[in-house]
Amino acid sequence: MQTTERPIGIFDSGIGGLSVVKEVQRVLPAERLVYFGDTARLPYGTKSKETVVRFSREIVRFLLQFRVKAIVVACHTASSFSLAALQREFDLPIVGVVHPGAEEALRTTRTGRIGILGTRSTIQSGSYQREIKRLNPRTKIFSQSCPLFVPLVEEGHLMDAIAYQVAEKYLRPLKRLHVDTVLLGCTHYPLLKRVIHDVLGEGVRLVDSSHETAEHLKRLLEKDRLVSLNGHPSRRCQFYVSDEPNRFSKVGSVLLRGRIHSVKKVSL
Ligand code: DGL
């Protein structure tokens, strides 16, 4: 098979990376995709760098079995901890979500005061803080880890009183710091967008890196002449998970606004 016609691999710790799948399908509709959600080992956001790098390596090796032409690390924690190692170790284009998210936040802010929300691991890694400062050293960055947001989403508390209460606790300090842009630095957080928006108020713009990540991937494929030339039936994606597939299939169908035909369980 010609390199251009090979699929693109996308992975996350679970279901959150489907927001990136959705954008890649929109921006690159002719591409075939293979998605892996590490549902057996989620959450990544509470784990050490060493563990997340090991998991990420195993997933890349799994995706390479499909002869993927490029890989998207659609998880902020895995991008923060393992992107550099993966890019060093594997000989194919690998993109993460941190650089595109940082660029989008800088394009959005007017005052240069940016808040970053993420898992404990993402915030502790300092990845966003470093990337934003590298791109614009004059920016003021305020970060906040939100460890209860992932379990809230997993349990379906997307807009109820519990979600508002937790969001108030995490976001109150940011409100006092007068940020004008808040980056949702975790693939689960866009699902709490409504609540986060309500708590932060009208004046604060929320940035989600999935669209910019898809655009970044497109530019990279164009540069390396890897864009599919033949065109495949649109929205073709194979899904794999490391734990029971039914829940993924159900929630995933809602996120992608369509049926996910088959989700297979595999062990790495
Ligand atoms: N997917 C992870 C991220 O984007 C969040 C969920 C987890 O902790 O595994 O950081």
Structural description of this entry:
There is one protein chain. The model has no long low-confidence stretch (mean pLDDT 94). The chain is 45% helix and 16% strand. The chain contains eleven helices and ten strands. Helix 1 packs across helix 10 (210-223) and helix 4 packs across helix 10. The chain is α/β, with parallel strands linked by helices. The two termini are 25 Å apart. The relative contact order is 0.19. The radius of gyration is 18 Å and the shape is globular. It has two domains: 3-96 and 211-265, Rossmann fold (3-Layer(aba) Sandwich); 98-209, Rossmann fold (3-Layer(aba) Sandwich). Bound molecules: D-glutamic acid (DGL). D-glutamic acid binds at residues 12-14, 16, 42-45, 75-77, 119, 122, 150, 186-188.
